[in-house]
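hey all, quick one before standup. I had two proteins in the batch that finished overnight and I want to keep them in one place so we stop losing track of which output belongs to which input. First protein below, input sequence then structure tokens straight from the run.
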Amino acid sequence: MIYFAATSANQTDLVETEARQAGSEDVKVTSGGVYFKGDLRVGYRFCLWTRCATRVLVLFHQAEISSIDEFYDHSVELPWENFLTPDTTFAVTETVSGCNWLMNTHFVSIRLKDAIVDRMRDKFDDQRPSVDVDDPDIAFALHIDGDSVSYYIDFSGRSLAKRGYRKQQTEACLSEFLASSVVCRSQWFKDGQQCTFLDPFCGSGTLCIEAAMTASHSAPGLVDPYRFAFYKLPFHDEKVWNEVFSEADDSTVVPKCKIIGWDIDPEAIRISKANAKAAGVDGLIDFQCRDFLDTKPSDVTDSKGCIVTDPPYGIRMGDSDVQIQKLYTGIGKVITDCFRGWNASILCGDSSLLGYVDMKPDRTNSLYNGGMECQLAHYYIYTDDERNALIERAKAKREERLSAPLSDGAQMAANRLKKNLEALKPLMDKEGVSCYRLYDADMPEYSAAIDIYEGKWISLQEYAPPSTIDPDDAQRRLDELVLATERVTGIDMDCIFVKQRSIQRGNRQYSKLNASDSRFFIVREGGHRFMVNFTDYLDTGIFLDHRPVRAKIEGLAKGKRFLNLFCYTATATVYAAAGGALSTVSVDASGTYLDWAQKNMQINGFESLNHFFYLDDCMRYLDGTRDRFDLIFCDPPTFSNSKSRDSFDVQYDHSRLIKSCMAHLADDGLLIFSTNYTRFQLDEYIAEIFDVKDISQETIGDDFSRNRKIHYCFEIRKHKLAPVPVKIRLKKNVSIKLKQDKED
């Protein structure tokens, strides 16, 4: 038989291992799960022992089909009577991908039901089985990929991921199969379950229960062994099943570790104990009601252990962002202060919160809780001796690197950087600027931009070399520039983040460069705080060249209705709010950046109801709103395209964009339009119909003086028309309507 074990994304490797442990020697991994071959014994064993699969199906037919009519004709010929009788009930589910001949995915299920019923009527003198969506005797599943159609029988039942022990649960609850995946990814599992397991935010106790079943070698399917769908299948073999069941029942062992669950909520502890009892592992877990943030070093008696936990992250619990951020900051502090020598695995549905833990993960996994992507970050907490040894090794390595002579090229780059730093730093210090550009391709052979943040971090963005440059030469020059940067700034190599700038198309404009880090830092500018990320995205979260523009917005915003189009992370909105804006509206097509924008506003204390955020294409937003604004900031990308909206080219589309902005501008309002397109030319028609002032040079700071074309910036206002006296003599019973051309 060919089985298919469905699972969540990024967990197929775990399910593949489970299939091999069940006895299959022919296993194939796909994006949505794992195919494996075996007899009934293999299938039964897999259902009993799998911890990470969500459903097991048996493949019984495949075909190439090119139309819905052909699908029905083919389906009605299949021997459904081998599985059904007129007295049984059935249901059909479907998954469809890339099928051109199917417009409505659910329609294919309807046609399959029709085919099954018509076939059964023909075989049983017009008698037919009934459809029962909720609790069918037998369930069939369709998978259509292009023209390839696969027919399956449900072998395990849809509730495979639900063990059956969770009789009660807290408001925020982790699914059993995901909890088991978290346990399997942890260092505790990799080290053989020899040390203490602690979940300090245990909730319903799911992580602890899954850990206890793993450590005691208890098959998850034994909790409720009568829930499987295969009991009602005609090929079920009771003798083989009893043998597999007995084999699993006899395999339980006494674990060699302590398993502990803490929670601040007494009700959660009560629920955890009840669930552990239902799972048969209540004697293996020590549940305690206590606040993890109150933990002291003296409370931790084990020198070695592993924290595996799923703390609250706001979306589920309804806590404010400030509360959640304080929680994660506290988690990081307690772990580093009290659990030295331990490992920790933290699952979080908002990866930005992991930055508040203030530890660098050794590795991460991306898992999915329903449709929500979660990051599972793994840490090792060094003991004092280990930390001191690491520090000494790092110091020695750094001293060795700094004492080594630079190559001629690196020395040349260092000389230029030193000259720039000596000229810029006094100016930046005088202005109170801690984030600024140090270098911008000053030398053609070292083509990169180097930005200093808070004197702690460097963002070095290499401009993609042309294809004519030898890759080895390009890499050598980049390495020389990095060495020169460390030597001149004194910022350690580990805090120099290197990325390559190239043209981004479509969704790549918003996608992560590095999905495994997700570390955010706080920088200051103009008395405000902003979140930056040096690893995950092409840009850090703040455009340094717009610093003077933002300051100008703050000075103009008092009492104004402010609109920020293409708001990115809403740094300009923060300035406007700080300047006393009456209200702010921030619009961007990226949900990632809009979430970031709201966090920037929150950490600066702007959480009132007069600050609005819209996830939308900016042109579509302007076309769909009637609101008017006193101050608008519009900083569109040079080029943008996406499946969800029309492409945008700033040179060709800026005229239409500006006119749309002006339609929503108050008569005495101001539009500040900016672009980083180096060859930008403002449409002459815009300069004719509006009052335009080029303020590019006055909005470029000293740190960008080497590249005066870093951006173009314009103040755009409506023309003020002088009133013209008009005398009109009307005859009796005559009326006229005066029209004014919009462009006059």
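OK second protein, same deal, sequence then tokens:
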Amino acid sequence: MKKRLIFTTISMVFILLGLAAYSSWQSMSFSKEALKLEILGPEKTTIGEDVEYVVKMKNNGSIRFENPEMIFTYPEGAIIGEEESKVKIMNSNDLGGDIYPGEERSFKFSARLLGKENDTRIAKVSVSFQPKDLKTRSEVSTTLTTMLGEIPLNLAIDIASKASTGKALTFRVNYSSKVGYPLEDLTCYVQFPSDFQFLYSQPKGMDNTQWDIPILNEGGAGKIEISGILNGQSMEQKVFKARIGVWQDGNFILLKEVIRGVEIVAPALYITQKVNNSENYVASPGDQLHYEVTFRNVGDNAMQDLVFITRLEGEQFDLSSIKTTDGKYQTGDNSIIWDASNIPELKFLDVGQAGKVEFWINVKPQWAMKTLNDKNPILKNKVTLGETRQDFLTKINSVISAQQKFYSDNTYFENSGPYPLETGQKTTLTVEWKAINNYNDIENAKMVTVLPESITFLGKTYPEGMEITYDSNTSEVVCNIGSLPAGSGVIKDAKICAFQISLQPELADEVIIILGSAQLSGTDQWTNTILTTKTETLYGQMSR
């Protein structure tokens, strides 16, 4: 009897396990076969084209699929609506409720895809549901892979194929777009050889390797000009690399990259330049520049019938002021040419022999600054002698100016007393200082003056947070401006500080000096030069 009971119990266990296994198998069969799920879309696309994904699902089974849910995941680098999520979750109501046998439904998702040529982008979809009368949910998923074709975005490195070691090398990274919509949040990265000594770039980049491009419209173009000194051994190949892409959700999506090689060659000619008798001259607006360019044969063979060409680049040059005793100025390409008829060393240059050319030109006293891309101006002298090319760069100081004025009304502070001034009457006034800066960023900027004995500093200052101090022992007032960005007072607001003073004239016919001249100073971050300028003296008016 006991054996039969045990056998019956074991049989029931196997039956229950069998039912569970059958239920599990039935559930799996639904998830894999009963629901047909697919993504329809292009196998290949390009940037700028609208991509439409169509998700189709069909109940090929014989029972109802209850409470369906769908998760659609856009590919990496997809551009969708600003308010949309890259993972689209749709519940049963969104999907139209239960899916009956034989019923087919479709849903559309639109995007543009970003990436470099031949990249693949994968869209994913999964649908979960509960087959009628079953407690377990089933899930089916699928993907669609799309390849990116030719990218209508151009990126190029314009650089000489050969360069001499230890010499300045200037090159450009050019970019343009034919994409049919604006590209936003672009960044261009430039990778240099390890022994490339960075000198400057226009525009200025971040960490000298990253340049942000806020927006690039269809048909738009731009360039990054970089200069540095390339070192290396003769015949050695140096590699420069540029990449451009877009930032999306904190990830950098690469769109285009380009690589150029430069061969280090042993120079046959050694060329040096002096401007105003200095190899590292820093120019200022209005300067007259005396260029002396010396060349020496450092090769193994004599040279003859050479032509020396210098091309001047920089809108800051006053080309109408060029003077040369033995060269010929060409207005078309802003070049000066010397040949053997003017310079004997160009006719025959023996090993170790040197020659020299010279010319004079002025820097414009001023020029318009339209955008911040115009900051950090530089003058270029591009020399060509035989097969040797050499770029020489001259930085230009910024121009700073300062203004001071006073107010008798309630500008900045509440003032009192008569103005024009009256003998024996106390008057309070507000002094305003304005700092203006044109071409380069200035640091450690400050304005300083010494108050006349008849003037009292009242301690009220503007704006809040700017350090304005008064030394009662020296009567010195100092406004520590700090940073004075390029374009302050030109394409952006000037830096302003103000303070309140009082005075009480004793004589009716005396000349009233409100303030003597104030000095503005600061360090030019482009040229590392300390710049100074002064304001005019402020005079007050007496009542008659």
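Flagging for whoever picks this up: The first strand starts at residue 35 and ends at 40. The longest helix spans residues 2-34.
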